[in-house]
Amino acid sequence: MKQLISPFKQFLTNNRTLLNKLNNKRSFLPLLGIIAAVGCTIYGSQMLTPKGSMSLKTKHNGSTHFLAAFDPAFCGIGLQPAVKFAIPIKSPLGIHKSKLTLYQQGTQKTSTATFKVDHQSWDLQVQTPLTAEDLEKICSAALNGKEAYVFEGKRYLEDFQDVLAKFAPDCQWQSTDQSLWNCGFSTLSAQTALNQIKSIRKAMVFRWSRQPYLLVRRISITNILAKALKNNRPLEALDRACRIINSSLPAELPLSLRSPSWQERACDESQLRETRITSAFLGLSFSIKEISNLRTHLEEETQVGTLSIRIPKQQLPSKDLWVSLRLKSKTDKAEHTTKSCWHPLFTWDSNFFIVAKDLGMVSSETYCLPSAPKARKLDFFPDQYITSSITSEMEFAITNGRGKRLRLPQGDYEYRIHDHQPTANTWYPDHKPSHTSVGTIRWTLRRPKAIIQKW
Prior knowledge:
By secondary structure, this protein is α+β, with helices and mostly antiparallel strands. The protein has helices spanning 2-13, 16-21, 25-47, 132-143, 154-167, 190-207, 213-230, 234-247, 255-258, 260-267, 273-301, 350-358, 382-390; strands at 54-60, 63-70, 82-86, 89-91, 94-96, 98-103, 110-117, 120-127, 148-152, 172-175, 181-184, 302-309, 320-327, 369-370, 395-399, 403-409, 411-419, 436-443, 449-452.
């Protein structure tokens, strides 16, 4: 408790106007909020590093920078093979407890490292930030009961920054004065986002007759979020936008807005105003990236053509049919379960990180291998996600002998056909089809015309 009160006393001593306001009853309640905020900041930063750890810092150009919290257990009888650090990380989505374990210390220039953040682990190779001589100095200070060790020079700051940059290459890393590393991002303004959405919508309306529903829906939701952040009362507008987001199907949302962490920070009314607005701008910026890249895929990879059904009548159970299409994955499954890095928006599910990577939303430089990846089982690969986002229709009713105009990316598609018996109350048949036909069609980029001729 003394650790909380003493810094606040010093804070009030340096700010006499606040001391005067303490005598004003009307100002007392707002000041309670200031006291709570100061106390939580101090207490929160202490709780992020393990008890008994040693704070490592470096001085450069008159400023002191935090590096990591060192585990003195390394300094037992003989140097241990693994050196452990705690490196608290602050991102727009909150504070993340992070543990770094380095192996192959000593004279080695590189180390095998394990990063653990938010209960997930990654393995990677990094340049060794501390030499054997550095570790001996740290251990000597730890054995003498010191709680901190300060290096001299810019090298240490750069070396730890390089380790973090390999672990999370999309972050703009900066050491803070609160024993944290800040993972920052450049974000778009609300007006810039609205201008880009207007440009994308104009191109889609004037250039394409077959509009992909999922992409159109994601553009609409992103537009609602951008307008909310430009509103004179952004929190009230953000509440309305969040109700739309929460009531939408997952497939209708951009990847960044599906993140549970983003929804918790941006849409929870109990969060601080700055927290909600900062998180919302982060989600908006990555949503714009997604729909912009999907527009490029739509322009370059899709073509309007016709799929026709011409099956002899005697082979059919019904003249009215239901067709489902699914793109055959162009890549091997192993590629989608290995490489990924940490990102506050996308590593809640490693599958979606890989989708974001394929869409150019995250860095293509991937150094990490998940130690024990936690991922939901998805029904699609990244290329199938992109395909479903930019196609006009993948499931539809059709009568034998007719054709259906579609906009699809180039590739091979698995089709499944069964009899269709629509009712007045449902879009899809409520019966279990007894007859089903499966096969493959090819969609080309020049005048595609696929025909299914046999059951």
